[in-house]
Amino acid sequence: MRKAVLAFAILACITSMVLHATGNEWASNNGDPAGTRYSTLKQITPANVAQLTPAWSFDTGTTGLEVTPLVVGGLMYIPAGDAIYALEPETAKVAWKQAFPQAVSRRGVAYWPGSNGIPARLFFGAGDRLVAIDAKTGGAIPSFGDKGSVDLKTGIMGDVDGRIALLSPPAVYKNVIITGGNNGEQAPSLGLYGDIRGWDALTGKLLWAFHTVPRPGEPGIETWEGDSWKSRSGTNMWAFFTVDVDRGIVFAPTGSPAMNAPSLSARRAAI
Fold this sequence. Notes:
Blueprint: E1 5-8, H1 11-18, E2 56-59, E3 70-72, E4 75-80, E5 83-87, E6 94-99, E7 110-112, E8 121-126, E9 129-134, E10 149-151, E11 171-173, E12 176-179, E13 196-200, E14 206-210, E15 242-244, E16 249-251, H2 264-270
């Protein structure tokens, strides 16, 4: 199909997706920061599931959707292509749509509930930037970073440039927005570092960075032969975080360090 269609199978199905053990919302990609994906809904059972029928469908006009929608504060949030949609979950009526110059995080957005009178925000990637918008209106947050976004390349560029993108949503812990990124795990071997970082949800200030490839003087640098650590791409967290909110620990699976791979023609010749 040319266009991807987002559909759910009656209001009861929508409710089953958004219910969570602590309320009637689905405020993070996997249900809660710990990724339990748990719902307390009891309306749908093996005895009645065959009776479900479609309630509505919504055409995003894009292909390749990989998103788990969030439903929180009475709105459903869907990234698709270069835009974020906010829909009424009961009807699929568009509350607002916000478009961006680059494609946005295709696997979802992160919801921050607000703090000290500051309204809720959505966080996601667009190109090589981390973007914040108002969750109720879709409007930009000029006070966050540089007019509403921060440059993800800042601080992770060694001797060479490269690419970085947030394919998956950040994690949210209190007022900290935690990002990984896709910087490539294949050739070329050199590029941007795959650091995991925490940003202030209010200002966009960088709070901390964890070096997945250690720098000189850090634990593990001795495992990298010579200067092979320099500008090493890959070793990135491009999937989904889980957070233990009680202990203040974030868990991050990482990919492999990038390495110079033989070209396709060279591999065919070897075969």
